[in-house]
């Protein structure tokens, strides 16, 4: 096996002279962020790393630091016992962001976006083993010698490894990593792009497309965004208000882990965009979730008992406290999400695209419908690339293509067979009158109801499978009102809900059975079916697929299937996909990337030797 790690001369234990040895990184003319890894276990590690990071940032590098620590209390203790050269250290900025003791990586953007810090809490060996990485590696420098079998898997060719021990210890660590290379059980591969700048087309002007445009331009990629409507957020992302809060389940599994981190990251993106001068109507006023019948109430109780959630994520409230928090009467106990609230999805989209345009790397094509796309390999015998076509002819040629067009994926031959379903949703607009202006938090039960904004509230939403028209429905309007009456049957303020103006908005959401988004490389469905038909079903077929990934269409990616939680999930999912396309380390584990892969449901059946029908 090829050795990727180049040992540098061991430093003194003081750790502060590292920057002198790592500055050669600036000469590599990186067109991506340099990725560094630090296991924080000693105060001198934090002090030395802070000195190093500032030196590299001064040299003009954009950096990503993967910071591993056993726990938040330990990180706080280390910080308290560390003497930094500068008062406002990188790690002070980290703690000012108030990260929570949660599973999976928490991505924070510090130093005006020049430093991305992924905080991973827990055992360092377990953390490194869970990190996704393509075959070319991802780490440029290790700021501490880690005796881990993952050292070589994660390192790029020529990666630097700084040790405050002996040269013998570094050699031993390399040999240990080699000795522990083993054949891993099947996992979906991390599809990655190369680091060279590419031209990327994004189809879709909603929350998914806007977040993808922002994530890619932040990485220096040239992007063309095609939006079929005359304005951004012209389809499902155009509601006046949308609730934002984490999806929790009694199982406290992968779905929870993703949505908690996604929710927190979305909040940070909204705040950063607002700080950059972009207007986004929102209010992180909290979300109060209550049951509407015995079954739903029991489920909420199981959720709150499933894990010791940080109080800032979720806590139990009785009916009296719920009424105090909401400002209106509530019939039953429930869960309060203090950091939740509501956001204008349309303004979120416009702000993200405006920020991307400020980079000078985004070309926006409004009112431009893409009707088809074809591989350049078939058209011009080029290795990679896609040609986009519209009603009037060719729209352009691009190295990469991201489908972020909601229900629009159903029109393309490459994606129409994916296991995702359209659900129509009508959101009712209710005038703010009577007691309704007193509402101080988002209510969520059988339906949801937002605090007032510009004289009205949003109430919803209907959920009709397969209906893809956008016409107003009186039945769905009344259905939204009935949901509120069923949820809070004893409350007088229900009399103030007026739907007589027939004001509403309709959108079609794409929903997956397991509630995860679809994010990643698009499977080659035709090649897959050919392989499937050749292998059949049963134990022999299952063994065949144990060590084979699904065939993919090179350079074709998607972000979709966001359901009704696109505000919460799209920013982090887009961030992970951009990392994958750029060959960088996403903040989430391989297990969560597997859970979002567009072909995951086919993969699960194939691994069991089952039929795809």
Radius of gyration: 25 Å
Percent helix, as a range, is 25-40%
State the total count of DSSP E strands: 28
CATH superfamily of the largest domain: Vaccinia Virus protein VP39
Note poorly predicted spans. Answer: 1-20, 179-194
First CA to last CA: what distance?
Answer: 42 Å
Strand content: 15-25%
- The second-level CATH architecture of the largest domain is 3-Layer(aba) Sandwich
Overall geometry? globular
Which structural category fits the helices and strands?
alpha/beta
Largest sheet: 9 strands, mixed
Number of helices: 19
CATH C-level name of the largest domain = Alpha Beta
Number of domains: 3
Q: What is the mean predicted local confidence, pLDDT? A: 88
At the fold tier of CATH, the topology name of the largest domain is: Rossmann fold
Family: In the C-terminal section; belongs to the DAO family. In the N-terminal section; belongs to the methyltransferase superfamily. tRNA (mnm(5)s(2)U34)-methyltransferase family.
EC number: 2.1.1.61, 1.5.-.-
Pfam family, one: DAO
Region (FAD-dependent cmnm(5)s(2)U34 oxidoreductase): 203-613
List keywords for this structure.
613 residues; alpha/beta; Rossmann fold; FAD/NAD(P)-binding domain; D-Amino Acid Oxidase, Chain A, domain 2; seven-stranded mixed sheet; 19 helices; 28 strands; globular
